[in-house]
Task: structure prediction
Amino acid sequence: LAQESSSQDLIPYYPMIRSKLFTTAFLVASALLSASCSKTIDVAEERRSTNEAEFRAFADSTGFERVTIPGITGTSFVYMKVTKAGDPNVPVDYTDNVHLFRDTYLTSDWRKEHWNARRIHQTLGTNAVPPEAVGNLKIGLQIAVQNLHEGAEATVVIPWYLNNLNTTTERTEAYTSLYVRLHLAKVIKPATN
Result:
């Protein structure tokens, strides 16, 4: 009889106990989810930090200059080393199309592996490339190309925040800076009516 009485005394407390168990389970699940999300953010922040350091390493590199285009201020610049000047009579404008041969690498891979680094785009050394609109290139490539002339060859280091075009041929992970070897073979000016 005493056992029956004590279990009947607990019946009003079952909903409260279930509620506390549910609350505790919810808090534990929330903590685990929060921990996993912060781990993702830490990986992204680490990638960003690493790629910014890789980009900045070219600031003191021999022959690399900081270049931008008029109208862009602040951190919107690339590092570029021109290895062949090209024809100064044929500059590049935003509205032009260009035949641009290039090999693109992840900056971090290039700094470690050099010529053994994995290419994410490869047309340098091929016979032909289709014309590309300068305005459709990655912002970092637009800056570089508009600082060159027809026939020029250069090496360009693009920071992650100017590598903002993810095409199927040049898809990169977030916060990836690029090392690009290029040859600006031809500039096609828009037709005037």
Summary: Residues 14-56 form the longest helix (43 residues).
